[in-house]
Design brief:
Chains A, B: It comes from Planktotalea frisia. The structure is a homodimer. By secondary structure, chain A is mainly alpha-helical. Chain A has 10 helices and no strands. At the A-B interface, α1, α6, α7, α8 and α9 of A face α1, α6, α7, α8 and α9 of B. The structure holds a DNA duplex (30 and 30 nucleotides).
DNA sequence: TCGTGTCTTTACCAAATGGTAAAATTTAAT
DNA sequence: ATTAAATTTTACCATTTGGTAAAGACACGA
């Protein structure tokens, strides 16, 4: 029986694994720079070095590629937040989180833009994941941070907005790169400056 | 001679003014929520209550509507930055700027998202305006802030990244509303919390 | 009210785009 | 080597979408 591998759940062949990876890589490139509607299967196919029908042999449609990508990268994206250790030194943990997020924005700007695009459009294909995936983790870490504040180890502020501000300031360097690159053209200086500034900003906020 | 008013530069009639406004309003709604490629002339037409050909009577094409919108709103968007008074009290000026930007994000989320969409895609239709419009103003205000720091009236930090962090944290509430609304559903609490937090964040940073 | 120019609608079109059918080719186990 | 299954290509198709032509409706000054 000849059936598309996109529905089959049996062991994927070497070719299948290679091509699905190829497609998802290409899709990340295209979706992150063009948005969901701006991206075309032809662009993804060309970027992947495959034909359009070939791509539809591995995925049931454009939407499935996009959703697969979002699901797959969600884990990577939330990892730094999970890694915060409730028993570590609060300032170290939070400043460390800031640095890890900034590193991710610099090293994985496509992933950042992929999510930014999706959220900007109202998260039409990710809404459930926000409630089911992000929200619980968010609430959990809010509690951790609140405890840290109550223990007096860091200054009191609103933990939720603290996280928002960390996300906003770090992802800004990926999502608004077209702007920051015009305003601060020297890449190395910009990245070093960002690190130093965010360190200072959040250290001052958190130090009791 | 019958000619489209989009090329004519003569005094626009009452109807012309009304309909161009109607179209630009509709276009703001659609472009900001769907992005440039995601927006269709049919959507804009429906939103404006006009027919598609009628819309193309007033504008020469989709791109012209978009560019007109960007140009028109650029002024409004940069206004708060211009308003910073070099002779005022530095902390008051900067904190005031933060509050004005946050108010704009809350009151004009569509404008914020319109620009966010455009920058995210690499500013393909706005690139020149960044260099020609924003850059000079940015550089000028960097100098003002630098002087404030040198005078000892505010703590030293990187002025460019200070502005980036103000933009990032305030616009976050408009651009990532789909996310913040899931994580902090109570609108009033969210907005009040944002104001208080950003006030605290930047006051701590700037106080010498 | 008449006529000229302004505005709107109807009826289209060509290109782009997501997707499919089925033939052709390649892979791999026997 | 043979063959059955997996993979890729070729040739399409229906819909959507930005855009146009031209006829029709309307406004308004003389």
């Amino acid at each position: 029986m000849t059936e598309s591998p996109s529905t089959t759940k049996k062991a994927p062949s070497r070719i299948q694994q290679r091509n699905r990876t190829l497609i998802l890589d290409a899709a990340l490139e295209v979706f992150s720079s063009q948005g969901y509607r701006g991206a075309t299967l032809d662009q993804i196919a060309k970027q992947a070095g495959l034909s359009k029908p070939n791509i539809l042999y591995y995925f049931n449609g454009k939407q499935e590629i996009h959703v697969t990508l979002l699901n797959q990268l969600m884990t990577v994206w939330l990892d730094p937040l999970k890694e915060m250790n409730p028993n570590g030194d609060p300032i170290k943990e939070l400043i460390g989180y800031v640095h890890r997020k900034l590193d991710m924005a610099i090293e994985l700007p496509r992933e950042s833009r992929l999510f930014a695009n999706e959220i900007l459009q109202g998260a039409p294909r990710m809404g459930p994941h926000l409630s089911a995936g992000l929200k619980p983790l968010f609430d959990k870490q809010i509690i951790v941070i609140t405890r840290w504040m109550e223990s007096g180890k860091i200054a009191r502020s609103d933990p939720a907005h603290l996280l928002f501000s960390i996300w906003a300031t770090t992802q800004h360097y990926a999502d608004f790169a077209a702007q920051t690159e015009v305003l601060l053209p020297d890449r190395q200086a910009r990245e070093d400056g960002a690190r130093a500034f965010l360190d200072q900003l959040f250290t001052k906020l958190l130090t009791p």
